[in-house]
Design goal:
This protein is an alpha/beta fold and 397 residues long. Helices cover 29% and strands 21% of the residues. The strands form 4 sheets. Strands 1, 2, 5, 8, 9, 10, 11, 12, 13, 15, 17 and 18 form a 12-stranded mixed beta sheet that branches. The protein has a two-stranded antiparallel ribbon with strand order 3-4. Strands 6-7 form a two-stranded antiparallel ribbon.
């Protein structure tokens, strides 16, 4: 399946170019949260879409009480324009496949205060309202699917779009993941003692936890012949998707990483590739003590070949954007394939010896041929979703 366009809203601002610039400039976007009163929290950082970018949404998409709804619509609009596709037109069967964790739930956060809970309407109770602004911005003539498999949501949405195109249900699939920074998420991770105070340091021996973020990432998928018929070239292609469930623990992956190993092998088998064909593993890499070590061992096992797998995580820069994380990482992977650049582990100082089975990319990144990228995502409850992306010029369907 071919990727014809990408779109993004992130802690770097509006647009996929801002996202990529932040990656290559090694920007670390974790900051003290300004949207909520964090004075009673031991860890007070997050990654917020900049206020100026939120204000700029007024000129891009309709208003909505859910920021997530607006992030998603803006990213989808950019993706369709990048693909050279109209936003309205019944001659294209366009479906929307969206992954999320909190959907519209953060609306409820605005009613939390010292005087008790003042519920601001019922929009927070209807998760599919997160699609409202997308429907106003883009004419969706095919199925609209909202998925919520934890933080694996973005990859799950991409896989769902691939299946819909392969089955002939749609001509165009707008596939995305979206998240709005939530006080509930900050409180939950605080209770789990899983938040870093200042910086996420994936795979570092001194890592202390993750930091929540927000945004939206979108891939526009089409059959390659449909793209070439418009005189355009695919940006990249989805070579394979795979999913698994550890069903081991509500908040921790299986200690052997069985789900991840299974999805990696599934992707390679379906794409007809070997471990040594993978040039970059875009890791889940949340910076937590348990998860990073398990992931490193599982990647080393799943991609055992003539060289150690090349691995980096973007969460040291952008935090963990939950439902948007994997989708934003897929947007970055598309650009990495085009630019032949592997992003670095920007906040890495001292690699954990327990992660010695993988080749951790130095903070500056690497200029090297990038022909295939494996991007993986975990969700609470043991869900794992992995996608394998390849260069666009050899797309074959």
């Amino acid at each position: 399946m071919a990727i014809s366009g990408v779109g993004a809203v992130s802690g770097a601002g509006l647009g996929s170019e801002a996202l990529w610039t932040a990656v290559t400039d090694r920007q670390v976007l974790t900051r003290p949260v300004t949207r909520f009163d964090m004075s009673r929290y031991p860890a007070r950082c997050g990654v917020e879409v900049p206020p100026a970018a939120v204000a700029a949404l007024d000129a891009v998409v309709p208003g909505h009480q859910s920021l997530a709804a607006r992030y998603l619509a803006a990213a989808a609009l950019e993706g369709l324009r990048d693909a050279g596709l109209p936003t309205h037109g019944r001659r294209q069967r366009l479906g929307a496949f969206v992954g999320t964790v909190m959907a519209t739930r953060p609306i409820l956060d605005r009613g939390i205060g010292p005087g008790g809970l003042a519920v601001p309407g019922r929009g927070w109770a209807h998760p599919d309202d997160v699609l409202d602004t997308l429907r106003k911005t883009v004419q969706v003539t095919g199925p609209t699917v909202l998925l919520a498999p934890g933080c694996a949501a973005g990859n799950s949405a991409i896989a769902a779009g691939c299946r819909a195109i392969a089955a002939g249900e749609v001509d165009v699939a707008v596939c995305g993941g979206v998240s709005e920074l939530s006080l509930e998420i900050l409180a939950m991770f605080t209770s789990l003692r899983a938040l870093a105070v200042d910086t996420v340091r994936p795979f570092d021996v001194n890592r202390r936890g993750t930091i929540p973020g927000e945004g939206a990432g979108v891939l526009v998928l089409e059959p390659v012949d449909r793209i070439t018929a418009r005189g355009r070239r695919p940006l990249a292609r989805v070579l394979a998707c795979a999913a698994a469930a550890d069903a081991h623990n509500p908040t921790q992956p299986h200690p052997d990483g069985n789900g991840l190993v299974s999805t990696v092998h599934g992707c390679l088998d379906r794409a007809g590739l070997t471990a040594d064909d993978v040039d970059w593993v875009c890791a889940h890499g949340t910076g937590t003590q348990a998860s990073d070590g398990i992931e490193a061992r599982a990647v080393a096992k799943a991609l055992a070949g003539q060289r150690r797998p090349v691995v980096s995580s973007l969460k040291g820069q952008f935090g963990h954007a939950e439902g948007a994380a994997a989708a934003l990482e897929a947007v970055v992977a598309v650009r990495a394939l085009a630019e032949n650049f592997v992003p670095g582990n920007v906040t890495l100082i001292e690699p954990d010896p327990a992660c010695g089975g993988i080749d951790l990319v130095e903070p500056v990144g690497r200029r090297t041929p990038v022909r295939a990228v494996l991007s993986q995502a975990f969700g609470f409850g043991g869900g794992v979703s992995t996608i394998l992306l390849g260069k666009g010029e050899s797309a074959a369907g």
